[in-house]
Amino acid sequence: MNNYPNKLLLDPSPSANEAMYDLAKRLFPFPRSLTGDGVRRTLAEVQTLLPNLQVAEVDSGTRAFDWEVPQEWNIRDAYVLDESGRKVIDINTTNLHVIAYSVPVDEVVTREELDKHLYSLPDQPDVVPFVQSYYKRRWGFAIAHRERMALPRGNYRVVIDSTLQPGKMTYGELVLPGSEEKEVLLSTYFCHPSMANDNLSGICVTVFLAQWLARLQDRRYTYRILFIPETIGSIWYLSANLEHMRSKTIAGFVLTCCGDERQYSFLPSRKGETLADRAALHVLRHHAPEFKHYSFLERGSDERQYCSPGIDLPVVSLMRSKYHEYPEYHTSNDDLSLISPAGLGGAYDAMRKTIAILEQNYTYRSTVLCEPQLGKRGLYPTISIKGSTSGIQDMINLLAYCDGTLDLIGIAETIGAPAWQLVEIADRLLDANVIERC
Ligand code: ZN
Fold first, then answer.
1. 415 Cα to the center of ligand 1, angstroms
2. Separation of 331 CA from ligand 1 center, angstroms?
3. Could you give the CA distance from residue 94 to residue 85 in angstroms, rounded to a whole number?
4. pTM of this prediction exceeds 0.90
């Protein structure tokens, strides 16, 4: 079968894996949240790789279905000093130390009072957890539980130099037109500070998928590629673009948790059986047969919005280790050592295969009755001996199912061959006029 390479998958930039990891290293330190300058810096860095990315902003307070765009949060510094002036908590160690959306504070508090503003994980005593309070105004610090327990009695000065006030919510959007108006949605989120698998990996893979798509000649579908804050970003974007997206989107993918090497994961759409479900599942069955198949009940990202009742977009997630399911999830241990060029590259390859078979997923019909005479068209060995047809079994099987009812993915599922490797065979049969596209 390797004699039939898929031309779309011949990647002219073989160093993409390293480049994705390098991007993760550059973006890791930025203090990202739903809004603010950490997001602007992140999108500015992405624009160096995707110059056509449109960065836009929405005012705080803008209605979005049942929600409204939150105030803008910016963080400049955050620390806790003990009585000797030593920093016992310092945001410069990790952005996770400050609770996202903390209001500003600068006061001296007792150990007891301080403790009411500390968050830690007793069963993971050495990690700093990721904690947010987007919709209730408070201040706080996240800390390793072991360090929290070791803080002695006394007074502490707590400083959070932040602003939380009406401003903007920033997002990035790139639309790559195709020859058809039908669209494929790629959506990733950027609101997590200093964590790698969830979700720097999603940003990095999306950037390089966008570069690959931008280079594709004869793009069939239009690609709508979104960099948004999770939840409020997708809710707002849907509220502003619902009719268009509902009428145009044939498949969509939330890109998250695609950087480690442990496993592959699949999260279906709410309805299942959509084109996105079929394409991603087909790829995983061949690309990573050991993948874990989750239920929509285990959803956790923007598919919650894209697949909600009345929205009903065909959106799935093809991931490596899924959010909630790995021990480092939402902690300081989800760092750059958890992801790797190979981990990112595996997800990137799986997504490219998925998109390639969407682009090339046609339904075919045989133009002749009974088996076509392939030998006279140079498609079949002219001498017959046991084993002489083994290399063309997929061609014969493909032909046997070109009855005008199955698309390429359906045929590939039926005959047990990767769809992205059947494309070249189908093209040869088209050239020989023994099949036609319906
Ligand atoms: Zn998360």
1. 38
2. 10
3. 20
4. yes
The answer to whether the CB of 425 falls within 8 A of the CB of 5 is no
Q: What is the pLDDT along the chain (438 residues), one digit of tens a residue?
A: 446 788 888 865 668 999 999 999 999 999 999 999 999 999 999 999 999 999 999 999 999 999 999 999 999 999 999 999 999 999 999 999 999 999 999 999 999 999 999 999 999 999 999 999 999 999 999 999 999 999 999 999 999 999 999 999 999 999 999 999 999 999 999 999 999 999 999 999 999 999 999 999 899 999 999 999 999 999 999 999 999 999 999 999 999 999 999 999 999 999 999 999 999 999 999 999 999 999 999 999 999 999 999 999 999 999 999 999 999 999 999 999 999 999 999 999 999 999 999 999 999 999 999 999 988 998 887 777 776 666 689 999 999 999 999 999 999 999 999 999 999 999 999 999 999 999
Instruction: Find the angle CA(295)-CA(300)-CA(301) to the nearest 5 degrees.
Output: 120
Which residue, of 332, 359, 386, is where some domain finishes? 359
Distance 172 CA to ligand 1 centre (A): 19
Q: Which of 297, 324, 359 is the last residue of a domain?
A: 359
- Both 155 and 83 in one domain: the answer is yes
Measured in Å, residue 256 CA sits from the centre of ligand 1 at 9
> Ligand 1 centre and the CA of 121: distance in Å?
16
Which structure tokens are listed for 413?
Answer: 């599922």
- Ligand 1 center to residue 324 CA distance, Å? 8
- Domain interval for residue 57: 4-69+168-359
Contact predicate 223/181, CB 8 Å: no
User: Residue 300 C-alpha to ligand 1 middle, in angstroms?
Assistant: 8
